[in-house]
Amino acid sequence: MSRKLIFGIYPGGTSGTEAGLTVAKPDNAILVNDALAKLQDSLSLFLVRCYTSFGSTNKWTPANPLQYLNNGRKMDLVVGYQSKEGDIEGWINFIRNIINQYGRHMAKVQITEEPNLHNIPVVDGDYPRVREAVVEGVIAAKKVIRKRGLPIEVGFNAVPTFDPANDFWREIGRLATPAFYESLDYVGLDFFPDVFRPVALDELEEAVRFVLNHFRYISLAEANIPFVVPIHITENGWATSPERSAEKQAKVLECVIRAIHEYRIEMNVTHYELFGLRDADSQNPNIFHQFGIMQDDYSPKPAFAMYQKLIAELG
Predict the structure, then answer these.
(1) E strand intervals along 112-250
(2) In sequence order, what are the residues at sequence separation of 6 or more whose Cβ sits closer than 8 angstroms to the Cβ of residue 63?
(3) CA separation, residue 25 to residues 14, 104, 146, 194, 289 (Å)
(4) Is residue 110, in this structure, part of any structural domain at all?
(5) CA-to-CA separations, 278 to 10, 211, 240, in angstroms, rounded
(6) Which SUPFAM superfamilies match (predicted)?
(7) What is the pTM of this model?
(8) Burial (CB count within 10 angstroms: exposed 0-12, middle 13-18, buried 19+), residue 43
């Protein structure tokens, strides 16, 4: 089958760490748009991933993402849930307002950010009633989208989990209603092979297949999410550092992206989004500051040309 992947990228420099957010240099909108245009080339659709959140500062990352939506580019908007009070009613109203205000600029909306990940303050897993927020948020988002007649896909995302005692997916299945399944267009997967634990280059393809297979046939199955609901790779990247070369970044990312493409039919994967465009701080040796395929001054690393090539070939 010749089905193409739909591609995108997070265009900012700020990234989450184990303690909070990195401090990045201000985005340069002219250089961001130039880089996005090179990656998109002639594609009619290219996704710009951006983030906002209910219950925290409600700021957007990157700031003012509408300035990047040229030539058919659309937002993949992550609406995070960080309500310390577990305010589901306020959460639903927040989602409605976001879609009413920005819906015409969106191709996708992701409800919550990594709700099954714990002890990381920038994601949602430790906030009260977050699993309810997934189910009720998906339903609420699709309801307003249908009412407005907008072509926006609704989903949520997660990270890989291999602990049989982890009950996230089973509880999503218990909380789910027919309205939830009817509203769910995709489930996103954030994963970072060879970043937080080493994987040899010649073992990467099999590692990718293992993660996709487990996510599709074990995790999603526990929540009774059927095969017809596609997987979107919502975040994938490989950070450089003094010990992690830019040349290897290009090799690892190419191997991972080609593996995802190879198994896209078997696992029903339709989208891939790279994290991210540029470093937060190219002089900081901590890997959380160097996920970009460009330096913090927007000079390209080898992975930029690699991603540009793969988008043209596989998109």
Answers:
(1) 153-158, 186-190, 231-236
(2) 27
(3) 8, 29, 39, 26, 11
(4) yes
(5) 9, 26, 11
(6) (Trans)glycosidases
(7) 0.97
(8) middle
pLDDT tens digits, residue range 96-144?
999 999 999 999 999 999 999 999 999 999 999 999 999 999 999 999 9
Three-state SS at 91: helix
Q: What tens digit of pLDDT does each residue of 54-104 get?
A: 997 778 999 999 999 999 999 999 999 999 999 999 999 999 999 999 999
Give the integer Cα–Cα distance in Å for 103 and 109: 9
Separate counts of helices (H) and strands (E) for the chain: 10, 8
CA distance 113 to 82: 9
**Is 177 inside a domain boundary?**
yes
Cα–Cα separations (whole angstroms), residue 276 to 99, 184, 210: 24, 26, 24
Per-residue DSSP letter, 243 = T
The CA distance from 58 to 69, in Å, is: 21
Distance of alpha carbon 149 from alpha carbon 280, whole angstroms: 38
CA distances from 234 to 73, 88, 159, 269 (A): 16, 24, 10, 11
Here the tokens at position 183 are: 């509203």
CB atoms under 10 Å from CB of 258, counted, come to 16
Which residue is it, tokens 């909380």? 175
Q: Is residue 150 part of a domain?
A: yes
Which sign does the torsion angle of CA 215, 221, 222, 223 carry? positive
Indicate the SS3 state at residue 231: strand
Whether 1 maps to a domain, the answer reads no
Q: What is the pLDDT of residue 68?
A: 99
CATH number of the domain residue 43 falls in? 3.20.20.80
| Torsion from C-alpha of 242, 246, 249, 254, nearest 10 degrees | -170
For residue 271, the enclosing domain spans: 6-314
User: Which residue shows structure tokens 């939506």?
Assistant: 69
Q: How many domains does the chain have?
A: 1
